[in-house]
């Protein structure tokens, strides 16, 4: 049986298990994205534990975290705005920081 955990290495020096076990890989990636939204100073890694096997720790791929952050921003946009506005370029995202429009590739 596979158990999925999330490890943060603070300032790339001090490791700690910060979450898990997660029911799915998607759930773990979304948790990693929430951490990355707060700070990019700490390393965020997967920790997989398989019954009877050595633990495996791996880095996330950049695009996995970027897509998850984009999805989190969209859900926040939808929550605040009650829906999505017209698509515009990411540089114009969240006019006046009020999440007035969603710009992600997931929603459009």
**Largest sheet, described in full?**
4 strands, antiparallel
- The count of DSSP E runs of length 2 or more, i.e. the number of strands, is 4
In whole angstroms, the N-to-C terminal distance is: 37 Å
How many helix segments?
A: 2
Order of strands, widest sheet: 2-1-3-4
Elements, N to C (H/E): EEHEEH
Uncertain runs are 84-102
Alpha carbon gyration radius: 16 Å
Question: What share of the residues lie within helices?
Answer: 25-40%
Q: Report the sheet-strand fraction.
A: 25-35%
Give me the secondary-structure category.
alpha+beta
Quote the average pLDDT: 77
Shape: globular
Structure description:
Helix 1 (25-38) packs across helix 2. Strand 1 and strand 2 (14-22) form a beta hairpin. The protein contains two helices and four strands, in the order ββαββα. It has a four-stranded antiparallel β-sheet, covered by helices on one side. The longest helix is centred in the middle third of the chain and has 20 residues, at 62-81. Residues 84-102 have low confidence and may be disordered. With 108 residues, the protein is an alpha+beta fold.
Main features:
alpha+beta; 4-stranded antiparallel beta sheet; 31% helix; single chain
SSE layout and pairing:
Blueprint (H helix, E strand, L loop, with lengths): L1 E9 L3 E9 L2 H14 L4 E8 L5 E4 L2 H20 L27
Antiparallel strand pairs: 1-2, 1-3, 3-4
Short description:
It contains two helices and four strands, in the order ββαββα. By secondary structure, the chain is an alpha+beta fold.
């Amino acid at each position: 049986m596979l158990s999925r955990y999330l490890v943060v290495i603070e300032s790339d020096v001090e490791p700690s298990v910060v979450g898990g076990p997660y029911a799915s890989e998607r759930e773990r990636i979304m948790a990693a994205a929430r951490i990355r939204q707060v700070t990019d100073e700490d390393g965020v890694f997967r920790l997989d534990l398989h019954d009877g096997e050595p633990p495996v720790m791996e880095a996330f791929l950049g695009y996995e975290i970027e897509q998850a952050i984009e999805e989190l921003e969209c859900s926040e946009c939808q929550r605040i705005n009650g829906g999505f506005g017209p698509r515009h370029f990411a540089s114009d995202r969240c006019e006046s920081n009020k999440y007035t429009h969603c710009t992600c590739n997931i929603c459009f």
